[in-house]
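Morning!

This is the sequence you dropped in the shared folder:
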Amino acid sequence: MIATAGPTRAAALEEIGVQVTAYGGGMTERVRALAGGRVDRALDTTPAGGRIDRADQSSPAGGSLPALIELTGDPNRVLTVSDFAAAAELGVRITAELRYDQMDEFARLAGDGILVVPVARTYTLDQIQEAAELSQSRRPGGKLILVP
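The structure's back. Tokens below.
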């Protein structure tokens, strides 16, 4: 398995046997090299319109999706959980389905320390503007939680 991650998450992914490469210029080529050629399947969790290879600013609509289609060779081998409009345009598969039948497994993985949801910061509702600004920066460093 190959993942793209920043330095904050890379070590944890490597601990569980994932090959990790950084975001940014040349990322597509680094993923292809790690895979030894074509990638079998790709999961896109990039925020809608975000680019996984920031050096490629000529990428058409769909942010990261065109690069993932290029890596897999087939839009049916790409699944997105975030960029639904571009997915419809490019023929990429979409999922927003909650798998309640898998919750026991998710809980087990979380209990074993394998599944971790990093929380960058918790905000109260009166801090919503600050939370929105950090979210829009695309560098929150984890999930942002709003509490009443």
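Headline: Confidence is low (pLDDT under 50) at residues 54-60.

More detail when I'm at my desk.
O.
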